[in-house]
């Protein structure tokens, strides 16, 4: 809803810089009596944590999350549950080699947010990217771990489906493979290839972009708020707000431009259980900004990491021409770590709309409707 | 910020259905003493108006806008200006052939919002798509006409750059051509081709998708609000909220996935006038969610119109399998009319961030900064 | 939530000036399938309408409300119901004697908003007070008529309990009397006195203040959102936003300062039906910002109308000392007309919190709780 | 704007319970380059801190605030300044005798929020009042310390003006006396009396209410956002959101009801310096919801502390009748500690409207206006 707050009813407000004392967020609007522990949040955070393979930044950060407020022990179940009050989640920064950045503190790195922050605010915490660092995204993952528990039956999964020009083969898609390689890749063959491919990128001091796909299943039909709170518009903002994202697609995405009406139309039939079946899912689970009950499918591109070893022309903050090389710890393909972040953001958007729908519409109508006169 | 309201400081709240008494919006938060007349808004509306060629819906609607509040005559200039109070803009509906829709009122048209609205709300104004009709976008254009005047020096232009699989040739791009053909196409050669191509689509009762590109020039550096009010995230939501949009790109967009870091980095040099020059614009004018002063470049895909003459399998609201054909007045390529709507939405987002920046940061720092000790 | 929008989930955005083309509002976030007609809204509006007795402004305005969007005929019931889309309510201005104000257009009337608007915006629609006119409150009454239907079992009633220094006798309080006199006074004896008292005020060209009390019954326990969305804080803002209001009280209000803890504590006992009974209501139905199920009781003071016949010292907009007398049509006690407005605002706040609670908490827990181990 | 967030552009989101790990807030939207240190915030916090005299709770809490994010060293000045990113302020809880509350954990204390929280959320952190504890107000004071620095020239001061039925003598009002007694009382004679008076209350295990007055000077004319973001409406909500507040007044407040129009009108004259002078301030510095440049004057009542030693009838959470006595550490007059909290809340509201005005109107018009034709 505002600068550092995300969401409308299920909201989180994020704080912290890469090299400050801590990062964290305040989750507000979460329903009461939802069981949650720091350990459960930690599981999600560990997926995103850097330093896990040679393909992500070597910053060694335990990213240990603490729940500082908003939970209490339920007398009946003995479980720790949410109380309806704000849940503060905090991750202390422990590996902050600020000295790594001192020689470039006055130079704007091409593709980095440094110049933009400086020209906006007149001051910039340059250490590790400060507030613009991807480190902030850890708190999104933490908030998302709670969001996932808000919507009964919701499953949100993401996978890397393209690295540079190389796409996965969808006929080999296996969600179980996503955890078996350091790329969150659902195609084990392509994952093997990515290993050597990214090694080459890394050793040359370069970086490469990627495409991530997110799929949300178990989303009730009817979520979304036309006209300016459309579910797809909120998802687009959520995914575009992730660092380095440059494009977002729902369903057929950009390719929808090439389709004819008769191909794009997702036809419908009644299922044996009285529910509605769609015969295809070009729409990606959303029509008119409202979920249809089909899986929600979104994709987004992540640009290559801007921190590279090749010298680039730039200027410094005092208006002098110069060159810059980034020697810090960085990811050759920052898109990899975007996978759990995307899951979290999608979970937060859906949780938010779940509460909004429950508030505005309540239990909702029962579909199909009775025939008039019946 | 919420369901039918768009924006944070420069906001508009939209109302109205396709076949109701009127559509319109309340523009709130607009600065005072900005000259504006209904005639000036009408110029923008006429661009979007249907019935202008055989390539858009034949609904004959003058779309005459009235300013119902929020303006007054300035004593000194004698001009009609905004007063800082809410500006209500209203367009009465005059050509509402509701009978066209009566035979399909109980059938869900594949690709339409009808089922989603029905399962959400339990009731749906099916006449002409009701609230989900593209007719609502007329009020966006009206609001955008005011937004354009809020930011001094701002120019926002859009063009259709792809229809079906056919792209424009960028070497022939001429903004002056956009007004010379019924497609808002900047490439006169391709525009000629689109004429016969779309005629074929139309005559076969089919429809086709499109890609639109929007370019905003004169956007001051420093607009945008990290981390969840990023300028690009707000643009993504704004464009995705337009009917039938399925993908949004900023700068290199989805293609950024294929780039290496050294190619993606927009290098910088000092200009002769002391300003900063970027040597390329892969970023599309936005870094870290903040405008850099470069042109902002966004693209989006529009799916083919769902209303087609080919029978499609569907169900009715009572759970029976059936087929449906849409015989109403419709666009063979609804993407064409998205061009002025996209300009309006981008203008609104920029106006909003212009006010937000002025509020939070004020006049802002002067860049380049003085050397320490100087 | 912002300048001309009131509410969070149940919201309305108001527009219009006293002497413009129309006033109205867009009600957004209203649940679907609530039966409502323009006639039902008109009943509420007629209570507030000026020109009904010699004690309110003689402006003759039918205040006929039209529903311009957001309703549709329910096929099953045949009733006109809300659809979940924005409901635009419009009242055209018909009696706008602008010439009445031309001789005072450059003079600031003490106690009026004219100077404040001018110094803020640099332009002011002075005709009849423009946007600052109490005429805007008609749209609140219209919105409130819908809000009342959102919460099942809700009753909101208000009454004038003090005029100048003269209070009603609470032992004679009879809600049925409120409609029997032109003052919305629940004490028939005092109402009789007010008649001659206010006649004296009116004839002398003066004006007088008043106190209004609002009582909401049938408010479910549990509404309200600590810490900054407290039900009482929202009520205070809602009532203070009514023109000319200078003080707001909940329960014992300002008098709570004089109480001792043992007197202020509302003791509790179990009712025969298993519900909780409070033995008193010093709290006015709200504890910790959350409704307790007791009647919500609020009071507010309305200052005397600033438009009086006695000349007052002032300055004009060009910085010259001068004097001013207001000769237009005005109320000797503007507090009278605040009665239906207050009911509407309280209904809107409660409807909003009802939806917020349903969204965030759902159906909620069942109290009393089972004993541990039971 | 929402549950645990206060403000629109200058916002803070609060978290924490009385007996949790920590309390704190995230201040968002604060302009950049404002010098601030933890020590400066601590000065304000120490005013509110309990345990300072025998008249406030004996809980011994250092209330040491840490700035966890959002500040950085300005290279030129060497000062620590805000960066425009969220400022997280944290106060760890150190004196949390939870055992004090174990014997009353199932009993609802009359006047406390316990029952309301329980019936809303189905779970309640009863230790020390949990989220409903006045302890949360410490973070408001911390946020207010920053807000004070946002508006140049702003001074906000508050004083206790009534305890029980005993009011201060305004002819003896001396702001310098406020810091010389444990009651924040501006009247040294009455302060002396309060000492023995409150001692009596305290020794009898009772408690007493109070009235606080807040005065803001140096508020620029033109702040406030009609119609639903009125400055006085926002102040009313802000003050009513403070624990135990039951009434709020602006200017003449409830007494405005007794005034005649000619007495209530604040007449105007031009000052020698070309500014506008008001000859009185019945309005409390606000007209039409907009500041006039006069001092803003607000008052509010605080009910007596609900925690008293006299046994009170109540029920437990399982629906049994019982009695309750509160033996914990508590304030005989909780209104005393509301003084610095009120200053903070008023500062936050004014800072917020200062940014809003700058955003929407910019530098604003120059008053008085030039004569037409001049």
Automatic annotation (TrEMBL), chains A, B, C, D:
Cofactor note: Reduced FMN (FMNH(2)).
Keyword Lyase: yes
Record's keyword terms, sorted: Amino-acid biosynthesis, Aromatic amino acid biosynthesis, FAD, Flavoprotein, FMN, Lyase, NADP
Organism phylogeny: Bacteria, Pseudomonadati, Pseudomonadota, Alphaproteobacteria, Hyphomicrobiales
GO molecular function: chorismate synthase activity; FMN binding
NCBIfam families, per the entry: aroC, PRK05382.1
Keyword set includes NADP: yes
Positions that bind FMN: 131-133, 243-244, 288, 303-307, 329
Protein name per its UniProtKB record: Chorismate synthase
Cofactors, names only: FMNH2
Superkingdom of this protein's organism: Bacteria
Transmembrane regions: none
Record function comment: This reaction introduces a second double bond into the aromatic ring system.
Gene3D superfamilies: Chorismate synthase AroC
Originating species: Pseudolabrys taiwanensis
BP terms from Gene Ontology: amino acid biosynthetic process; aromatic amino acid family biosynthetic process; chorismate biosynthetic process
GO-annotated cellular components: cytosol
Pathway(s) per entry: Metabolic intermediate biosynthesis; chorismate biosynthesis; chorismate from D-erythrose 4-phosphate and phosphoenolpyruvate: step 7/7
Catalytic activity annotation: 5-O-(1-carboxyvinyl)-3-phosphoshikimate = chorismate + phosphate
Residues involved in NADP(+) binding: 48, 54
Protein family (similarity comment): Belongs to the chorismate synthase family.
EC number, UniProt record: 4.2.3.5
Quaternary structure (record): Homotetramer.
């Amino acid at each position: 809803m505002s600068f550092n707050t995300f969401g409308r009813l299920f909201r989180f407000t994020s704080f912290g810089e890469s090299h400050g004392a801590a990062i964290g967020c305040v989750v507000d609007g979460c329903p009461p009596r939802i069981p949650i522990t720091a350990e459960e949040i930690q599981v999600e955070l560990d997926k995103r944590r850097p330093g896990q393979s040679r393909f992500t930044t070597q910053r060694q950060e335990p990213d240990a999350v603490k729940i500082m407020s908003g939970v209490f022990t339920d007398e009946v179940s003995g479980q720790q549950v949410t109380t309806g009050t704000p849940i503060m989640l905090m991750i202390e920064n422990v590996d902050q080699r600020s000295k790594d950045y001192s020689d470039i503190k006055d130079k704007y790195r091409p593709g980095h947010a440094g110049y933009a922050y400086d020209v906006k605010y007149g001051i910039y915490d340059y250490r590790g990217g400060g507030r613009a660092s991807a480190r902030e995204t850890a708190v999104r993952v933490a908030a998302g771990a709670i969001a996932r528990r808000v919507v009964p039956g919701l499953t949100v999964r993401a996978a890397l489906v393209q690295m540079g020009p190389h796409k996965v083969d969808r006929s080999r898609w296996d969600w179980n493979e996503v955890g078996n390689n350091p790329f969150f890749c659902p195609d084990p063959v392509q994952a093997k290839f990515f290993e050597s491919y990214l090694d080459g990128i890394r050793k040359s001091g370069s970086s490469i972009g990627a495409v991530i796909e997110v799929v949300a299943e178990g989303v009730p039909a009817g979520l979304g708020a036309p006209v300016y709170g459309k579910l797809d518009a909120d998802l687009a903002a959520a995914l575009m707000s992730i660092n380095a994202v440059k494009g977002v697609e729902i369903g057929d995405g950009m390719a929808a431009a090439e389709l004819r009406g008769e191909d794009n139309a997702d036809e419908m039939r009644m299922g044996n259980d009285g529910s509605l079946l769609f015969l295809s899912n070009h729409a990606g689970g959303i029509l008119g900004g409202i979920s249809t009950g089909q899986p929600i499918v979104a994709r987004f591109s992540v640009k290559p990491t801007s921190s590279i070893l090749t010298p680039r022309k730039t200027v410094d903050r005092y208006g002098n021409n110069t060159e810059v090389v980034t020697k810090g710890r960085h990811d050759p393909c920052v898109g990899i770590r975007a996978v759990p972040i995307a899951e979290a953001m999608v979970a937060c958007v859906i949780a938010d709309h779940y509460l909004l729908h429950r508030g505005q519409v309540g239990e909702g109508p029962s579909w199909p409707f009775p025939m008039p006169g019946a």
